[in-house]
Structures
1.
Amino acid sequence: MAIATQKLKNYAVLGSDIALTRYSGVPSSVPLEVADSWGVLDMQVVPGGKGGLPQKGDIRDAGAVAGRANLAQALVLRLLTRQGALSGLGHPDYGCRLLELIGELNNDNTRNLARLFTIQAINQEARVKQLIDLAVTVVADQPDTIRISFSVLPVNDDDPLALTLEVVL
């Protein structure tokens, strides 16, 4: 009698971090994989008091993300960080050039630059095995906004991770 073995996915390689995007683990109709861009970064607060000295009242603490949610958050943060902003911390190449497009017209040239800058930023992420799909489109009824939708194949994972980010130019 043969017993089928199922390959278990190990997301530990994708890491864990403090939850910084507001969609991380927050019950909502908008999951982490669909995060708006500028102005949405905030530390997630979750019920706390799970250690240390007993405290009275409503205890709150910083939230955490791990695995695929951590990779999704890391990609969003990389795309929203001006390239070179972390030079003083020893990471001169971290980030993305998307911020350079703010103030530009929403035309083919700008959308092509957004594609290029997104590809460059995703290629910096060691936890991404492959960029599978990328589309930069105009948002209906928002002529100053582009929508960047992409999917990546994380390392040690056969299931693509899809994200969408809107950038106001």
2.
Amino acid sequence: MAADRKLEHLARVGMFSSLNKKELALVARASDVVSVAPGSELVKEGDFGHEFYLILDGTATVRRGGRKIAELAEGDYFGELALLDRGPRSASVATEGPAEMLVIGQREFLAVLDQVPAVSRKLLASMAARLREADRKAVSH
């Protein structure tokens, strides 16, 4: 996959959107692009995670408690919290058909944060904004 395409996809991810091109390039280098067979379970609810997934091509289904709660497609992502902690997965995600995923492991991601501390500050600000938005939505419902 072309490096520019990786950067383009990563720049659309909320937690990476404030990073500059150089910082995004570091994150991109820490990632791998993998082809996934149809029906592959990428993450399982309750398991401890350590990878982030970004769908480059294909679709996936999100299930919680066995019930379908969402459909994901190109540009959608999941597992971002696993980059920051090794908490249990809140849902299971499986591919519908063949898919191509950009995958970042926690160890590789933490190495980027160690290398460029400014990335940590930007990610903290981005995650705080997401938390405020989620809190606002929870209060309004």
3.
Amino acid sequence: MNTRLRCAFLAVFLAACGAGPEPPLTTDTTVLENFTLLDGNGGPPVPGSAMVVSGGRIQWVGPQAQLNIPARAERMDLSGKYVMPGIINLHGHLGNTLGLTQDPKNFTRENLESQLTTLARFGVTTYVTMGSEQPLILELRDEQRREGRPRMTRVVTALRGFTGKEGYPTSAPGMKGVPYEVTSVQEVQTAVKELADKKADLVKIWVDDHLGKENKIALNLAKAIIDEAHRHGLKVAAHIFYLSDAKELVRAGLDALAHSVRDKPVDDEFIALMKEKGAWLAAATLTREASTFIFGTPQAMLDDPFFQKAVPADVLATLRTPELQKRVASGPDFKHGPEWLAMGKKNLKILFDAGVKTGFGTDSGPPMRFQGYWEHWEMEMMQDAGLKANDILTIATRNSAEFLGMSKDLGTLETGKWADLLILGRNPIEDIRNTRSIEMVWIAGRKVE
């Protein structure tokens, strides 16, 4: 019997015995070897791990000693390295900011792709842009999903958020005309249907009066948005500030808070409501509060090479100027920012310790909230708030994928999922700031250049 016939006979025999050949691997098969695995599920780091990636997905992950290396696979020895899932940010804003200017005119494909590339280089592999977008974002998102294997950060979008007539944040530079400004339930129904027809991924509401300085959407309209969104199968996340608003919205079925409560400590009633309703603290956005005051004084951050990678040279030069620092220090939120940050940290810790579902988000993207760096700084602030590094990694990966309903494909490093991952030089479980020791980022098995 010649070789070809023997091989054919063997294949038929194995199939008949139920032990058929391994699933076919594509030509772009890579084997990662000898690393410490942080799979995103919250367990301890696993040294001596290996992974087989093919077609952008994880085909196998386990102990190096059990690795079966496929033929023709590229091999990468990662001895001394740490591998974790890609970071998922549940609250950001794409496209409207260029330099230090926020304007809808900036919402171009060039700017979107530039920001998504920056995020990818910092290991943020999925990004939820929360309600300040234009239809172009849907084109880009749909292109990614048709391809299956994006070459830059994955996009999830709320498209247009909701506020009341002339409500917050329409007075902010570049925000007039961006959200829906609704005045009736009928307007709500029409707008939510429009979002559903365009296949927005979720719905955003701003519920805030900016310390009494601006209009706040009426509670009955916010409740109508929640009801109507749920009727169309869409989750709703809300920008909130006050504990009282957060309670009313959660009672009405709100799916997620897009910020920490910042006016006072959360209480037992609120904790019980969050758990009873299954509502999420989807994003603490501690760095958002820091942005209100941090650049009002000279900052060592400006000399950090990791920060400098996120900021254009001309913007960095402006941040160093006394004129910019004076402008920030004279801003309306400068004196309140440290208080808001402290309260946000306190409430994050209380809710997490109480078992409230917690995700990860920064509100990065608007001026002086620098995408990429902000996500790593947020994790550092969560550590400062008292959360353990391993819990923070789980929040920023597995939990955030769960909130998005994307756990089948993202959030942990397990067989069958996309190979969205970071290769680090230092152990982030010892100090969450070690997520900054990025040596390589993959999105769907593709190295981010």
